[in-house]
Amino acid sequence: MPEPFTTFSSALIPLPAENVDTDQIIPARFLKTTEKSGLADALFYDWRYDADGGPKPDFVINRPEMQGRQVLLAGDNFGAGSSREHAPWALTSWGIRAILSTSFADIFRNNALKNGLLPIVVDEDTHRQLFDQFAAQPEAEVTVDLEAQVVHLPGDQDLAFEVDPFARQMLLEGKDDIGWLLDRHEAIDAWEAAHPARVDTRPAGA
């Protein structure tokens, strides 16, 4: 299960490309595993490495100053394409905890929220402002406060954002749907004990 989502500050990782799909986030050939370990190396693999497997020094997350940053500033419609949990797994394994974009593909957003990754929608003006801010001050940090549903931007500007209430609760508690159910096993057992097993009243052979 993911770790509880706590307030944190980070400089941005700028990735202005639009319509980044899940096959670009993590190519299909890396989907054979059900383990999250090692997926950080597969993140953006075909953009990140050359044909011989050598890292491309100009790709954004290969740059030394990007190491340790936790907020991806992405272009519009991030996470399009097929559904795969490996996409948020690869992003969080690399260290990314939140993504800022003007929109996300629905399936990716839902997979992200279930796997400890916070997708935050920002308006187009703020989106441009953040890219401009990065260009002027590459080390400037934002603070992501999920509890208050606010991103504190440079210059004391606060950006409120929406998130599904149940998803927010699960992120803050560091739980997934299965963990939520397990916490309620006593209530489930009590309900089952108070309700007789289903009896099939249909005539034999009906």
Please describe what this structure looks like.
The chain has 206 residues and is of the alpha/beta class. It has a domain at 8-140: Alpha-Beta Barrel (Aconitase, domain 4). 31% of the residues lie in helices and 16% in strands. It has 8 helices and 7 strands. It has helices spanning 22-25, 45-48, 86-94, 106-113, 124-136, 165-173, 177-182, 185-194; strands spanning 8-15, 71-74, 98-101, 118-121, 141-145, 150-153, 157-160. The chain has a 7-stranded mixed sheet with strand order 4-3-2-1-5-6-7, sandwiched between helices. Strand 2 (71-74), helix 3 and strand 3 (98-101) form a beta-alpha-beta unit.
SSE topology sketch:
Blueprint: E1 8-15, H1 22-25, H2 45-48, E2 71-74, H3 86-94, E3 98-101, H4 106-113, E4 118-121, H5 124-136, E5 141-145, E6 150-153, E7 157-160, H6 165-173, H7 177-182, H8 185-194
Parallel strand pairs: 1-2, 2-3, 3-4
Antiparallel strand pairs: 1-5, 5-6, 6-7
